Amino acid sequence: MARQRILIIGGGMAGVSLGSELAVDHDVVLLEAESSLAVHSTGRSAALFLADYGPPPVRELTRRSEPEFARLSALPDVPPLLTPRGGLFTTWDEPSAAALTAAVASSPSMVAVTADRVRELCPVLRTDELAGCAFDADVRDIDVAALHGHYAGTLRRRGGRITTGARVVAADRVGAGWEVRTADGRTWHADALVNAAGAWGDQVAELCAGVGHRLSPRRRTVAIARSRVPIPAQWPVVADFAEAWYFKPESGALLLSPGDETEVPPGDVESDPLDVALVLERVNAATTLDLRSVRTSWAGLRTFAPDRAPVVGPHPEEPTLFSFVGQGGYGIQMAPALAGVGARLFRTGTLDDAVLAAAIDPGRARTALDR
Ligand SMILES: Cc1cc2nc3c(=O)[nH]c(=O)nc-3n(C[C@H](O)[C@H](O)[C@H](O)COP(=O)(O)OP(=O)(O)OC[C@H]3O[C@@H](n4cnc5c(N)ncnc54)[C@H](O)[C@@H]3O)c2cc1C
């Protein structure tokens, strides 16, 4: 039987990871609008692996990804994909301290720590006003470029093709398949489409099936601050547990974020100077760093479904359009498991884990909101 031709729309982590899985037994063609891959969310992340972050389906997919990260890291051409970082979570008021205590109780790796231990882990933190603090030794840094490069390389080695500079602008059902046009005037034919367009996921869903998934792209800012004191590379990521700021060492400087979630239309977003000023102010209030300026800053989009779980499976209105969107702020850390789950759903339409299948089913976001 001839291999099915699949067009994947989007060359970020979602598109290449699922594409590499599907290329085993399909003729995969990936179309990326930009002139290179991973220039949007995938290239702008904080590169963290946080097992106790996000809603239950995300935690489950992150947990399932861990052995896969280890397996991939053991391949001859792949560097270690996860490296120890550790996470120090701080709280500054009683409600946040109570939430942190509950998180510690339910986490296999998070432990409450004393002010003395906090000062050992990160001596610049002001501990006098801390309401509570916990350390998670399981937090890791992810080599995002190596993971993305591994998936893109595997997709190609398995016979798939990647075309950049190919923005999908029209898609029509023709016979049992699809005719797709890109902005450069080319026409592409396929048996099935995969929507891996990140922040543009609803635009692509509407283009192909007339209905989106109520995705909400949210801008998050990152800055690299100059510090007048040396920043030890082994510091953990230090975060306000309510996510008002976090920082971690980055090549001798500090990577900071104000944890912003400003809803914006999909696009090539830039950092807002007010958000950069805000994170400097917040980190200065919590530390003795006295940061005054940044070397550079950027912003990227974290795109969420209403319940913050990913949207994976056949589109409810158009089963030959497979949705692989809504990766939110977790699309790197859960990529290995999500790609496996996506490929299984693509091939068989079912998962052994019915709870997970229902939690990520593309039909549920609409139902939840229409109730
Ligand atoms: C500041 C920040 C920090 C983050 N930190 C973390 C973290 O620490 N850990 C973690 O796991 N996750 C993190 N994330 C989230 C993670 O980066 C995303 O979940 C993930 O990158 C999403 O991948 P994607 O492939 O869905 O989207 P993208 O990487 O944005 O890829 C989508 C691609 O689709 C293309 N496209 C769109 N429309 C079309 C079209 N019509 N035709 C062709 N191509 C199209 C776009 O050009 C784009 O390249 C962070 C995100 C941000 C912004």
TrEMBL record:
Spell out the molecular function terms from Gene Ontology.
oxidoreductase activity
Keywords assigned: Oxidoreductase
GO (cellular component) term, any one:
cytoplasm
Residue stretches making up the FAD dependent oxidoreductase domain: 5-341
This chain belongs to the protein called: FAD-binding oxidoreductase
Which organism was this protein described from? Umezawaea endophytica
